[in-house]
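Researcher: I've been going back and forth with a colleague about how YeeE/YedE family protein might be arranged in three dimensions. Neither of us has a model we trust, so I'd like an independent prediction. The organism is Flavobacterium rhamnosiphilum, in case that matters for your notes. Sequence below.
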Amino acid sequence: MKNIVKYVLVGFIFGIVLTKSEAVSWYRIYEMFQFQSFHMYGIIAVAILTGIIGIQIIKRNNIKDIKGESIEIPDKEKGSARYWIGGLFFGLGWALVGSCPGPIFILLGAGFWTVLIVLFGALLGTYLYGLLKNKLPH
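Model: Here is an independent structure prediction for YeeE/YedE family protein. You can compare it with whatever you and your colleague have in mind.
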């Protein structure tokens, strides 16, 4: 139970940071896809930099997971078609609905109930991917 409280607390903090940085704003996402503002690109760049630093800290210090086991991060498999295709679908979905998967729950928590349609679409897409994944280029 103690571990669950930590995860919920981190989730709340993450939601507050995304909300205060306006990363959940449809208008900010619209600006990004119209190349009218650096705001979202700056947030994404900070996230990438934070991820790179975090991964390097984990690898260099042999940090263990919550169960005490070593964290192993395998290298990505070679190939580019799947990254281009996946990125295209992700970007199109993001542009069409004005939200990527993380902020869906933040927007629901903020009372934007129409985002339930987006959540349904995300879950349906995930389900369809599960059905078709063996037939897709990986």
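Researcher: What would you highlight for our discussion?
Model: I'd start with this: The chain has one domain: 1-36+75-135. After that, consider the following. The mean pLDDT is 87.
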